[in-house]
Amino acid sequence: MGSPSPGPGPGPLVLALVGPTASGKSDLALDVADSLPFPVEIVSCDAFQIYRELDIGSGKPTPEMRARRPHHLLDALDPDDPCTAGRYAELAAAAVRDIWRRGAFPLVVGGSGLYFRALRDGIFEGPDPDPRLRARLEAMYRRPSGPRWMERLLARLDPAVHRRVHPNDRVRRVRALEVALAAGEPISRLQATRRPPLPEAGWRIAGLDPPRDLLEARIVRRVRGMFASGLVEEVRGLHGRYPGEWPGRLAIGYREVLGVLAEAPAPEDLPDRLRAAEERVVIATRRYAKRQLTWFRAERDVTWIRGAAGDPAAHEAVVGVFLGSA
């Protein structure tokens, strides 16, 4: 069966639902899929849901949710098997083509901006990260005159990034300086050599943008639910089975709990330490959601929808984007 493409469009179609953590993308994706007049399969775009055993802390869809629609790139790798953006893009592109061959439509769902960009646009062959150079650049940024000096340097070394990337997006601007200094040419020029893993695909992308107070309430509820559902036990078990380095150690929630366990507090002190860790997870998740919105707002061709899962207007708007009527 050929690759599906409902209605007028540029060939085989990929649907995508992106946005900040705790906005309910997984729930909304399933509800929207039920409203579409064609078969849909979900492709996860999450840097930590791809790992087995990272269930509670990654917010992985429940078995009941996964039974409603086929899901791909959940539990695809062992916790100590590192996944790069390039590897994710290869795995996700293969899943998309399998879905097309079955006559269904892939719906990419997640908030990992780098993975999403790698799948849609490909990755470029740039220099490997240089921790020492990165540390020097970060130290420069922290000096009183550092930001102004580095803005001038970026404008000279890579004016395209200087114009395109928001000044508050320090991570991408520092990476652009790192590449320009290490490779001797701007990252914007190297990025032009990227090869999309799915060059034949047309994309319809909906972005969730919940009101701030709603998103913050959902974040608090999600974090409280993670701890109540056994996050500490999950982390303790993972640490026992994988005592060395494993990528999930860096994820929000996992790193805070690991920090408490590493301190080996007295049993009577453990509840207070964990409550403090829970508050740190809430704060870190808020900051992460803000970074996600900044990242995805820089992506092209995203139709932004005010709302979150459970909002009928948001549901209808996403359906409209995917049907090409929005």
The CATH topology of the largest domain comes to Rossmann fold
DSSP strand (E) fraction? 5-15%
Number of helices: 14
Termini, distance in Å? 28 Å
Order of helices and strands, N to C?
A: EHEHEHEHHHHHHEHHHHEH
Which overall shape is indicated by the principal axes computed on the Cα atoms?
A: globular
How would you classify the quaternary structure?
single chain
Number of structural units classed as domains: 3
Q: Strands of the largest sheet, in order across it?
A: 3-2-4-1-5-6
Give a count of the beta strands, DSSP E runs of length 2 or more.
Answer: 6
* Name of the CATH superfamily of the largest domain: P-loop containing nucleotide triphosphate hydrolases
* Overall average pLDDT: 91
Poorly predicted parts: none
The secondary-structure class comes to: alpha/beta
- Which CATH class of the largest domain is shown? Alpha Beta
Q: Taking Cα atoms only, what radius of gyration do you get, to the nearest Å?
A: 21 Å
